[in-house]
Amino acid sequence: MADVAPPNLDDIDRRILDLLQSQGRSTWARLADDVGLSAPAVTDRVRKLEDRGLITGYRADLSPEALGFPTLGFVAVSLRDPGEHEALLEHAAGIAEIQECHVVAGDYDVLLKVRCASPEALAELLRHRVRNLPGVGRTNTIVVLQSVKETAALPVPRDV
After folding, report:
1. What is the pLDDT along the chain (160 residues), one digit of tens a residue?
2. CATH number 3.30.2400.10 given to 71-143
């Protein structure tokens, strides 16, 4: 796989991206203050970063524990038939407890990140929904006991 060139960003764009990752609810005025520009100039820069596909959306990060989903698991899935990839991915996308679904290389074909209300609910999800997805041959589940770091933040590339 070829290396992807880092985006051409100046120091202000990098600072804006860093700030938005850590303070997504920041106002234009606050962002402007933090980077030393006017609010309209920051607004224009953010819109350009969105247009370039560097900012793909905004969201609130919710507490799984506070919402009643403290059980985190990773489920590795092997397919019986590689031709059933698309059907499995389509069905997995419709299961709310599946937070992430990745096609992977190695001993397994798909890796799922799931959140459930309890270990019993996880077992139920596996037995009645995940193992019934199209093409599933076998699964291997890892239950997380403690999360030390969990983030969606990315390092913003610096010029080399």
Report:
1. 445 556 788 999 999 999 999 888 899 999 999 999 999 999 999 999 999 999 999 888 899 999 999 999 999 999 998 888 999 999 999 999 999 999 999 999 999 999 999 999 999 999 999 999 999 999 999 999 999 999 888 999 886 4
2. no
Cα–Cα distance, 32 to 42 (Å, whole number): 6
- Give CATH for domain 11-51: 1.10.10.10
Q: pTM for the complete prediction?
A: 0.84
